[in-house]
Amino acid sequence: MKNENSKLKLIRNVVIVLVALVLIAVIFTFAKNFINKKDDGKIAMIINNREVTDRLKKELIIDEKGVIYLSKEDIANFFDEYIYVENETNEIITTYGSKVAAISLNQNKITINGASKNILSSVMEKDNTYYLPFSDMADIYNVDIEFIQNSNIITVDSLDREQIKYTASKNLSVKTKTSAISRTIDKVKKGQKVIYIDSLDKGWAKVRTENGKIGYVKENKLTNKIYVRENLETEKENKKISLVWDYFSEYAKAPNRTGTTINGVNVVSPAFFALQQGGTGELFDNVGTAGTDYINWAHSNGYEVWPMVSNNSYKDTTSTILNSYTNRQLLIENIVNMAIKYKLDGINIDFEYMYQADKDKFSRFIIELEPRLKEIGVTLSVDVTAPDGSADWSLCYDRHVIGNTADYIIFMAYDQYGTSSVKAGTTAGYNWVETNINKFVGVQEDVPSNKVILGIPFYTRLWKEDSEGNISSETVNMKAVDIVLPADAERVWDDTLKQDYVEYEKEGYKYKMWVEDEKSIQAKLSLMQQYNLGGVAFWEKDREIENIWSSVAEVIKN
Question: What is the DSSP code string of 146-201?
């Protein structure tokens, strides 16, 4: 009997030990370390208090001089998705914030916004991968970079983001979870500081220690809150843009608008600049005295000035510029210089009729221009046509990249049926405009709605058809519609197009017009509100009827 009791006691003790071991195993299985899940000697990386080691595509490298290298692929992943190798100059080009940087592939040199300087190390190539001297590039990406040797962690903190520190009021154990029985990953001594990340339930706080470890402590054990940095990230003012293009040819002077105002408009875009045909980035400047007076008139009435930079549909000249990094930089420098010289508020890039093959190079131009304009506080808007059209009119734009990069992308919602059309039709039917807005803000182009400005025409077309079905058309300004149409012509409202349709015969020809007037414009303006677009733009000043501006003002103020 005694032997049986001993055996039972032994079995019970073994079971207790096994259960205890299982419980310990469970605790350590679920109490995961957020930083180094295993001590494998690999360098870990934290960016803005988020552990990103598992998201790295390539290895982290630190050379004998202490230079930290990050792969081109990982810089694309975390900082600049458009980073690329420029074979013309043998450099890697990266943009971020207000910086455009060119890092030499074979020299210890970096050029930032046109100014060159020497750096500790050059680009490294290993296993067909470029590694950039990331620690020499902190000012490009506006970050603080630190390698904490004793914990093998690299921390990266954006200098425009808020950072708060607390002091430990007693010795603290930093836990992997908000539980006292979870694993301890670091110790903080009384008086040491921790970076505060977030406040959690049940009195816990998420923190980062001086060793770079991220974990949890009781918030009531933290004291002496210090703001190391305020949040400097600023959101763009949420005002609706109401822009009107003020076109005049490069051979004409800017119009004299002195003594006039435009109700409901807050931006004017005069035709000041154009590419020089056959040039490599030179700009034709059509400001002059009349243009200076125009800028003064606009500013005195509270209008921002975003002049057009037109390519005048010079396909070959445009292609020559876009396909050369050197030429693009020359054009960008000229645009920046003009913006500074004339104290401009914005720039409107109006490149139309480009080779489809130059689509990505046009995107590169916008990517490289945007930081330079941001540096001087100038807004960038880019005009594009409707998606899914012809090669050199529509398919020459990457609307997603442009919309993701520029401050605004302006959808020129015209001509649905234009001069080359073999069929008579409307210039901008409501349903066609709405369909294309959905392409912009939907999955096809994926542009933020508040970056899309809807371009609206102040004109229509009068179509002329002979007995054999041959057609031609002429442009009719909105203000001339009532003059052009016969007084007895019947207007029939088309609720799909949100326009009046007119058809009549004269001298053996059939005439057709889809009318643009106050009612049709109001319908298009409602789309700006419905889709929360960034605003509206009008082509062009002096084609409109005067009372249209009261309708515009009513929508914009709301």
Answer: EEETTTTEEEEEETTS-EEEEEESS-EEEESSSSTTSPEEEEE-TT-EEEEEEE-G
What is the per-residue burial (b if ≥16 Cβ within 10 Å, else e) of 294-327? bbebbeeeebbbbbbbbbbebbebbbbbbebbeb
Q: Which of 36-50, 190-204, 492-506, 535-549 has the lowest mean pLDDT?
A: 36-50
What digits encode the pLDDT tens for the residues 297-325?
Answer: 999 999 999 999 999 999 999 999 999 99
Q: Write down the catalytic residue from 51, 91, 352, 445.
A: 352
Band of residue 34 on the pLDDT scale cut at 50, 70, 90 = very low
Q: How far apart are the C-alpha atoms of 144 and 155, rounded to whole Å? A: 8
Instruction: With residue 321 as reference, give the H or E element that holds it.
Output: helix 315-322
Distance CA 397, CA 355 (A): 10
Domains and CATH numbers, the chain: 44-148 (3.30.457.10), 161-229 (2.30.30.40), 241-459+517-557 (3.20.20.80)
Backbone phi and psi for residue 430, each to the nearest 5 degrees, phi listed first = -55, -45
Whether 474 is a known active-site residue: answer no
